[in-house]
Amino acid sequence: MKLLLQLSLLTLGLTLALGQIVPRSSWCPVPLSPRLPRLAAPVRLIIIHHTATRQCFNPQQCQQALKNIRADHLRRRFRDIGYNFLIGGDGRIYEGLGFGIRGEHAPNYNSRSIGIAFIGNFQVGLPPAQMMQAARTLISIAVQRRQVVPKYSLIGHCQTKATACPGIHLLNELRKMSGYRRI
Ligand SMILES: [Zn+2]
């Protein structure tokens, strides 16, 4: 009985974690600079990326991946990690810059979009169903919080410039989602 209770509490905790945004402080000891440019909300565009890195399958791996991605972006002279949010292979939504901050992910589109990156390389691999579900959850949170208009356009990075990002397999999944636009 006790075990059953513990198990159900564990499942509940996992379900809650999967439906929420994991705060930046969980993976990054450095807080966001107050000088980062702001993003005027709500925006109309949601731009999906992949990180073209290895996939991560648990919170430890995903948090390490986030650190590596931020370090890479800082080496490339970005102000911080370039994405607003990232989706882990563990099905969690990780806060990057978060809402209200202008990202550095899609030149010419940064001031009117939110950038969401799927951790992994989806030119070669298929995105797991739980990552797609996490993205849908994040988008509904963004609409609820009026960070994105209800009639948003969901596009892949490759629709803004010549790039393989977010990978053909992820693009195929995006095409099935509501709000997907061909531009
Ligand atoms: Zn991209």
Automatic annotation (TrEMBL):
Disulfide bonds join C56-C62. Residues 19-161 form the Peptidoglycan recognition protein family domain. Keywords: Disulfide bond, Immunity, Innate immunity, Secreted, Signal. GO terms for cellular component: extracellular region. Residues 33-167 form the N-acetylmuramoyl-L-alanine amidase domain. InterPro entries: Amidase/PGRP_sf, Amidase_domain, Peptidoglycan_recognition, PGRP, PGRP_domain_met/bac. It holds the Pfam family Amidase_2. It is found in: Secreted. One of its GO terms (molecular function) is peptidoglycan binding. Its main location: secreted. One of its GO terms (biological process) is innate immune response. Residues 1-19 form the signal peptide. CDD domains: PGRP. Belongs to the N-acetylmuramoyl-L-alanine amidase 2 family. This is Peptidoglycan-recognition protein.
